[in-house]
Amino acid sequence: MKQLIALNINEQIYEVPVNPWDLLADVIRNKVGLIGTKKGCEQGDCGACTVLIDGQAVLSCLTLAIACQDKKITTIEGLAEQDGQLHPIQQSFVDRGAVQCGFCTSGMILSSKALLGSNPKPDLEEIKRALSGNLCRCTGYKKIIEAVEAASETMSKEGVK
Amino acid sequence: MGVWDKEQYVREGVPSFQDERKFTQVGRSVPKVDSPAKVKGEAVYTDDMVLPGMVYGRIKRCTEYAHAKIKKIDCSKALAYPGVLAVITGEEAPNKWGIMPQVGNETVLAIDKVRFNGEGVAAVAAVDEETAEAACDLIEVEYDPLPVLLDPFESLQRAKEIQIHEDAPDNILHEGEQNYGDVDKAFAGCEYVLEREFKTNMPHQGFLEPHAALANYDPQSGHLRLWSSSQIAHYLHRQIADVLEMPMNKIRVTVPTVGGGFGGKGEACVNEFAACLLSRKIGRPVKVTFDRSEVFYTNKGRHPCHMKMKIGLDKDGYIQAVDFDNTLDKGAYAGWGVVVLFYSASMIHLPYKVPNARFRGRCVYTNKPSTGSMRGLGGVQPRFAMECMLDELAEMAGISPFELKMKNAVESGYTAVNNMYVPHTEYKRSLQKAVEKSGYLEKHGKLPFGKGIGLAGGYYITGTAYTLYMAYKPHTSVLLRVDTEGGVTLHCSAVDIGQGSNTVMAQMAAEALGIHFEDVHIQSHDTELGTFDLGTFASRLTYATGIAIRDAAEQINEKLKEIAANLLGCRADHLAIKDRKIYSVFEAERKSIEWEKVVEVAVNTVGSLAAMGHFSPPRRRGFDLTSGKRAQGANIGHSPTFGFSCQIFEVDVDLETGKIKVTRVTESGDMGTMINPMAADGQVEGSIVYNLGACLYEEQYFDENGIHLNPNFQDYKMPTIMDMPEMDINTLTDSYDPTAPFGAKETGEGAVQPTFPALVNAIYDAIGIRFTEVPITPEKVLKALKEKKEANE
User: Fold this and answer.
1) Would you call the peptide bond into B775 cis, given omega within 30 degrees of 0 as the criterion?
2) Among partner residues B41, B684, B718, which is closest to A75 by beta-carbon distance?
3) Which of A98, B356, B420, B657 has the most neighbouring CB atoms within 10 Å?
4) A112 close to B (CB below 8 A)
5) Looking at chain A from residue 63 to 82, which residues have their Cβ under 8 Å from any Cβ of chain B?
6) Gyration radius of chain A over CA positions
7) Chain B 245-284, CB below 8 Å of chain A: which residues?
């Protein structure tokens, strides 16, 4: 039985018909059409589907869409400025070569955003721990860490959240 | 590192128009052209695509058995299920396919019998994914189970009783022998001879984006379009044509953004054929995306190798002979098997001088999913054996492994006994640099028990010498178009799978044309928009496209210089093009004109400019009319040039838990010029962690019936960020191969070669145990420590 629910994604309200068992990842991708959220394993192992729910990094492939009403969902599409300027985390991923195939990138950036939201100046171990649920098969992680460090620097300098 | 060091290329007193190494666009660490779209979540991967009228396909798989006769497939219930549009079985597409057409023996869906657990037996198209899945459950298949062969030696032994393929009575895909010099005689004269056996695992590529394909057949025109996450648009194109019995010119293959490949998308895949067949059947677009378990069922992971190797050194420590016997576990189908077999054979000839060499090998069918091409194809396994044995031989000879390797390392201009030619190498300097930066000589053999340091070297090809089907056509062609509207557009069907070829091609085109990297538009990833390219494998793209781009750019430059010479009133051969200016090298102040101005004049007078550039690899094999013989060797394994590297691993072995922690990796590679140093570093760092995983954690497990036990990322463990060691990358910044385009060689696969042995040698240094099987799990470490303790008591 489908029911109509309202989801607040990137500060926009989407009314979508969902089954009670529909996963947030599928609803975001197939019904809302925000394809930046990726599905790599569908079992919560790879982290590619990470989104923010009320600022916390959450695996959208393990989350029921119906349970996300009245919550603030942020996907990768909600990070850049209105005028298309990249968020400092996005910019530093580009500048530091932290992107290869790009399939883990949305999840990596959102996990980083959640980290820097609660801990603006994380040390190496804290960065590693925050990103430990996000697999990347291309980069060897080094440039991703450098990108998060650089973003932390820029954000605290510019007062960006 | 990361930032281009302009000074490294400058030769004092030589002007840039006389020094081909004075680059402005090559050597820049520009961000990859596709990364802004990727960080915004806007890059479109195949599964992200939706076409009008699109429906969903799904494969019905045999999950119960690994080897069974198909008695009956009943699709009637599935066909009657509301929302189901079509069901196909193997008989509808019986043509066999494979990346090597000579031996290709896969069918889209199993016909008569299944040969591995998870093989497809039918495919469904339905209005949505749920319906397609439900319909698969309604397909009834009756099987007659057959005995299962999981070990290649058992396969060989029981071949009379059980055959996996009718046309392979010995269960052997291919076997071969290569003899160079006199190995037995050489061993007889050796001072140190060592013989060891090694066994490697079956890791999977683990790309994060599962296979996805979308096909759209247009019944009116008879044209088929296929979008797929593939590394090999061209080989895929050919195979689709063969299986669907359609001419290639009615099929267009487009590759959207690819979420990683590492060789795993280097073969055609069932979802691609199924999407095409179903779309042709119903005249609507069909998308088939795999879930993660299907990626593991499809597999094409690394060939497990059972290797016996014997190496002999003379009294002075020079290698005199290598004897190598390799039994490869092919899994169920041929795929890349023959290539992998002979690559493993060629790997003993470099990076050391080996005057006498023998190889015997066989690629054996088993009832496992088919193995395929995985990063560093054919090299990782023998490199593991050889570098570990040289470590042990050095100990026997009482010298450091570094000294032994320096002594035997090849030099530029070396021709191996199998006729492989190395135009350029800085391998010795790679060894020296890594040793110096890591403090290897001070630490090796001197660290406390549980801590260790290990060294290994390696090399890899920069593209192949031959196509996988018989042809002598160029391996890459580019079309360079210059006009006043589009500016500069480079057409080439090469596929960027994340390594950055689109960026690197733009940098090379800009360098060759004397303009800026930002000025070049790339049209790639498409067999119709792009000109011919063989594919993304064998670390071939930078070199192959580089030569073709330079070829095309020279033709464009010649035309522009002729026009500029007229405009400037000087000789065309006095002109140089740099930084968007065409100028006389003798009268630059008076005779200089904007590049764009000349293009405008060219377009207004003769029209848009276009030039084709081609790359054909040098080949070493052929018929010698003088001797009347066919030159032996240097076929599979030969390459225009080779990349080299050295890695030094430092480990900490937890004696209580058996867990191995890699604390630090010092790397020094010779990849010639780095076209984009930041991207090149990314390849090296990625390679190290990639094979660190395969060495310590990754393995696919099958039960005694051949059922895949860990077809998911929960149970198949790849390195996370927590496993990342400190990495010190010291790629030689002044290496330059004068025979290569812009001096550049491979980097994508060379850096995975030394990882296994460097790590295993470090473990030996730490706990005095030489492991000969990977992955080296904590259980194995604890067991070995216990055995060692008992032996000492």
Assistant:
1) yes
2) B41
3) A98
4) no
5) 75-77, 79-80
6) 15
7) 257-262
H or E element in which residue B166 lies: none
For B682, residues 6+ apart whose C-beta sits below 8 A from its C-beta are A97, A100, A138, A139, A140, A143, B500
Question: Which of B583-605 are b and which e, b meaning 16 or more Cβ less than 10 Å from the residue's Cβ?
Answer: bbbeeeeebebebeebbebbeee
Termini Cα distance of chain A: 40
Indicate if the pLDDT at residue B632 is higher than 80.
Answer: no
H or E element in which residue B577 lies:
strand B575-578
Out of B29, B258, B720, name the one closest to residue A135 (CB). B720
Which residue type, as a one-letter code, is found at position B715? D
**Nearest CA among A110, A120, A106, A127 for reference residue A152:** A120
Is any Cβ of chain B less than 8 angstroms from the Cβ of A60?
no
What is the CB-side half-sphere exposure of residue B180 using CA atoms within 13 A? 25
ipTM above 0.95, yes or no: yes
- Walk along chain A (161 residues) and give the pLDDT tens digit of each residue: 899 999 999 999 999 999 999 999 999 999 999 999 999 999 999 999 999 999 999 999 999 999 999 999 999 999 999 899 999 999 999 999 999 999 999 999 999 999 999 999 999 999 999 999 999 999 999 999 999 999 999 999 988 77
Question: Which residues in chain B have their CB less than 8 angstroms from residue A128's CB?
Answer: 721-722, 724
Helix (H) or strand (E) holding B99: none
d(CA B168, CA B295) in angstroms, rounded, equals 27
Q: Please compute Rg for chain B using Cα positions.
A: 27
* DSSP string computed for B193-208: EEEEEEE--------S
Closest-CA distance, B706 to chain A, in angstroms, reads 23
Number of Cβ atoms within 10 Å of the Cβ of A161 = 10
- The pLDDT of residue B103: 95
**Residue B257 has what DSSP assignment?**
B
The pLDDT tens digits of the residues spanning B519-549 come to: 999 999 999 999 999 999 999 999 999 999 9
Q: Does B724 sit within 8 Å of A140, measured CB to CB?
A: yes
Q: What is the DSSP letter of A22?
A: -
